[in-house]
Design a protein that fits this description.
Blueprint lengths: L14 H7 L7 E2 L6 E4 L1 H24 L3 H22 L2 E2 L7
Antiparallel strand pairs: 1-2, 2-3
Helix pairs in contact: 1-3, 2-3
The structure holds zinc ion.
Zinc ion binds next to loops.
Keywords: Membrane, Transmembrane, Transmembrane helix
Protein name: TIGR04104 family putative zinc finger protein
Amino acid sequence: MSLPKCLNCNHQFKWIYIFKRLWKFDQTMECPNCTAKLYPSMKFRNKVGYLSLLCLFVSFGLMILGIPKVAFITLIVIIWVCLILTMPYVYSFDNKERPLW
Ligand SMILES: [Zn+2]
């Protein structure tokens, strides 16, 4: 896993830069080096979709197993935190904005 690079000038983005951007509604990123506009790629969006689905399945699986509520919530929080922290590494750019589906 590595951090994404600008498609235009190959500038490597910082983890914190992408992390901050992930919380914004407008996910367009501007390269701090060459100011090119970059968009989240289809690949990235698909990955996020699959990861969310996986989380959901794991949650259901844990519910069926009937583990204590406190352990369940703690586990879910840990899974989500891990996912969010690795998100910038999964991130990839596209130089065009594409429709969601
Ligand atoms: Zn650039």
